[in-house]
């Protein structure tokens, strides 16, 4: 009985952590290129409704996942055009993208409220999935859970073991120097933004197709902002982002268990736990200015003006 409760809690932590991890790793790559996109929340919601609408209409979860990624990329393309081509302020544009995404998703999803879809199926390997504790945790997850782990591993390899990753980090640290030796700064930043948008869209798809397989307005509930905070918490490193996502996922699940323990804590305060933890972590990290300066991309949020 105790093992069943443990498995249930751990499965809940994985489910709560996956959207944070998907959105976070996308934003990490974007910021590594020197671009600050605060529109993660809006991209997640557009991805959530795009994935849900296509899945509900076509009956194909695969098409829904693809639509979610494309929806997030479309939002990211708008952001990239405004900030990289038209040189709009990145902070203001990112905030506007979130507000626009929230409204757009609500409008698109008006006709889908209350219509459930089948939850994304788990891997469910015949003998391995039956192993106590480990089976359901390791071999019983759906595609997006495994993809989120693979994305972290792939991003880590790309950033630190490939020439393309070296170029992307060089652009994030000194776009003028990278441009001077011939690297296409704007093109690479466009690609990074599109990757970040796709990952945010997939995070939204996980919410509407697996975490709660239905559409509800504003269902991301601030997870996009937590993903942004996780990038800083992880000091722009994929491995630390993985740990941070599961830590915050555990805090998110903790609120539900605290409510059932009868401790007399107001439910409103318990619901604040993930966001309170985010604020406390950011305050703790911000107090160490040297650590931030050493790890943050030097050109983060700075516009690039090509000479000539």
TrEMBL record:
Pfam family for this entry, one: BPD_transp_2
> What stretches pass through the bilayer?
33-56, 63-86, 92-113, 143-160, 188-207, 219-236, 241-258, 264-285
| MF-aspect GO terms | transmembrane transporter activity
Where it mainly occurs, coarsely classed, is: membrane
Assigned keywords, A-Z: Cell membrane, Membrane, Transmembrane, Transmembrane helix
Q: How does it sit in the membrane?
A: Multi-pass membrane protein
Q: Which InterPro entries match?
A: ABC_transp_permease (IPR001851)
One Gene Ontology CC term in the entry: plasma membrane
Please state where this protein is localized: Cell membrane
Query: Can you say what this protein is called?
Result: Nucleoside ABC transporter membrane protein
Q: Which organism is it from?
A: Dongia mobilis
